[in-house]
Amino acid sequence: MDKQTAFNIVFQDMQKCNMFQGIYDAKNGDPHFMYGVSTVMEYIASQVSDDALEDFSKTFMSNMLASVNKANQKEMSQKKNYVITLPITKQWYDMILSGEKTEEYREIKPYYTTRFTRIFRDFFNMPMAKSKSQDLNEWLQTGSRFQFPERFSNGYQKNSPSFVAYCLLSVGKGRPEWGAEPGRQYYVLQILKILS
Questions:
Q1: Distance between CA 132 and CA 99 in Å, rounded?
Q2: Contact at 8 Å (CB) between 55 and 63?
């Protein structure tokens, strides 16, 4: 049996395995095992051809990213009590649900700094070392790593229409057509995915 045939057989068998389909729990399992498998398979693929090596590497990394994402979502669902609620007008509520509006803005002031700090402190177990605003600004430098659930409500009552979405938090300028004042800095909530 030549190397190409052997590689194809093993690779096809691996793709049938749950751990190779984004089902593997990278958070609670042992990611070193899959990376060990990757090292062996990449060596075999490199002996076959450059194209085989590139194809395997892309497939494996895509799998691991899917696995990590599943693990993160599982952890977030277990921390649903950390979700905070932000009221929004019906216009923005409907536009976000329809996918037309993908950002929501909040003024940079102590009230929202405290609320967003709670997410980073409690949800991501970040230590408190300086003032809330200093900590939050430092955490936002790596904010692209963190997805967190946020509840948006069309009203202030418990039974007001609402939905939960995964968001990324940053500081920046908003779009006037979505309610931001031109040139003004805001806390920007980028809406990644609506959950419910």
A1: 32
A2: no
CA distance 75 to 97: 24
E strand segments, the chain: 85-87, 103-107, 148-153, 162-173, 185-194
Structure tokens at 63: 């799998």
Q: What local confidence, expressed as pLDDT, does residue 67 receive?
A: 67
Q: What pLDDT, in 10s, does the model give residues 161-170? A: 999 898 888 8
Q: How far apart are the first and last CA of the chain?
A: 52
Distances (CA, A) of 108 to 49, 93, 117, 158, 179: 54, 21, 12, 26, 15
Domain residue spans in the chain?
A: 3-78, 81-194
Task: Compute the distance between CA of residue 40 and CA of residue 59 in angstroms, rounded to an integer.
Answer: 15
Q: Quick one: pLDDT band at residue 119, thresholds 50, 70, 90?
A: confident
Q: Helix (H, G, I), strand (E, B), or coil: what is residue 185?
A: strand
